[in-house]
Each structure stands twice: as structure tokens, then as C-alpha cells.
Write a structure and sequence with these properties.
The chain is mainly α and 192 residues long. It has three helices and no strands. The N and C termini lie far apart (164 Å). The N terminus is likely disordered.
Length: 192
């Protein structure tokens, strides 16, 4: 009301300035139209008509469209979930097959390694045996040569000892001793 009085006061000042002394019309003091009691029944009627029209519009057009969209979405989501579950099952099956193949490959690799190790050991044993037999043959030949050289050396030791004894006796006593006497003395010493 205060605002209305201010507006009226402003209009009164405007009319005083213009020189007219007419009063404001009575319509300026009328209530706000939605709150006017004389139009309240028609407003309720139009509210009911608008509400029913909006309700039928929503019920016949908007809600079925929204329901269709929701049904399509739920179907699409269900398909996506089913596809994801199939992909998960496929990946789990592939993982199981991979793990099985990996285990088989490890077992096969272990068997191959054991076979290769056995073959290498057999080859090494055969080579060692061949080398040992070759060395044993060489050792026997060397021992035979050493025995032969020893026998010849021992056979020659007597003649070398006889020559050395003859030379020593000649140098010490300046006498010539006969070879048969020297050989007999050397042979007697060698027997002991």
C-alpha cells in the first residue's frame, strides 16, 4: 500500500505541475488480478482445464516417449552387459588355455633340457672314456719304452761302469787292468 501511495503522490505531483487537479481513477486501487475474488472461479476453471490438458499431453506423448527411451536404454545396457560377460568368459577361457599351454611348454622344455643334459653327459662320458683309453694306451707304450730304455741303460751301465772303473784305476794307480777282471768286479758289485 505504501508503494501505491507513493505512486499516487508522484501522480499528484505530476498533475500539480501540469495544472490539472483530477483524481486518480479507482482502477489503480484494484487488487492484483490473480487474487481478485471476482475472477477466482474462472481462474480455477482454466487451471483445471490446463491441468487436464497438460496431464493428457504428458500421459499420451511425453511419458510413452520417455518410457520407450528408458526401455531402449535398458535393452542396450542389458546387451552391453551380456557382451561384456561373453568377452570376460572368452578372455578367461583364453587365459586358461594360455596358462595350460605355458605349463605344457615348461614341461616340454624341462623334458628337452633333461634329454639334452643326458645326451651331453653321455657324450662327455664317451669322450672321457675314449680319452682315458687313449691315455692308458699311451701310458702303457710310454712305460714299455721306459722299461726298454731302463733295460738298455742297465745293460750299458755295466760297460759304462767298467769303462769308468778302468779309467779311475789307471788314473789312481797308473796301471792297466784287464777288461775281463773289471767286468767281473763290476758284475759282482751290481749283484749286491
Amino acid at each position: 500500500m505504501l508503494q501505491l501511495a507513493e505512486v499516487t503522490g508522484t501522480d499528484a505531483a505530476a498533475t500539480a505541475a501540469t495544472g490539472s487537479s483530477t483524481e486518480q481513477p479507482a482502477a489503480a486501487h484494484a487488487p492484483f488480478p490473480p487474487f481478485d475474488k471476482s475472477t477466482f472461479a474462472s481462474q480455477l476453471l482454466w487451471l483445471a482445464i490446463t491441468f487436464v490438458a497438460l496431464y493428457f499431453l504428458l500421459a499420451r506423448v511425453a511419458i510413452p516417449r520417455i518410457a520407450g527411451i528408458l526401455a531402449d536404454r535398458s535393452g542396450c545396457i542389458a546387451n552391453d552387459i551380456a557382451t561384456a560377460e561373453r568377452a570376460k568368459a572368452d578372455s578367461e577361457a583364453a587365459l586358461a588355455a594360455y596358462e595350460k599351454a605355458l605349463a605344457a611348454a615348461r614341461t616340454n622344455a624341462f623334458a628337452i633340457a633333461e634329454t639334452a643334459r643326458g645326451q651331453a653327459k653321455a657324450a662327455a662320458d664317451a669322450e672321457r672314456t675314449a680319452t682315458e683309453s687313449d691315455l692308458a694306451g699311451k701310458l702303457a707304450a710310454a712305460e714299455a719304452r721306459i722299461g726298454d730304455i731302463k733295460t738298455r741303460a742297465l745293460a750299458e751301465v755295466g760297460s759304462i761302469a767298467a769303462d769308468a772303473t778302468t779309467a779311475i784305476v789307471k788314473a789312481l794307480i797308473d796301471a792297466d787292468v784287464g777288461r775281463p777282471d773289471v767286468d767281473a768286479a763290476v758284475a759282482g758289485v751290481m749283484r749286491k
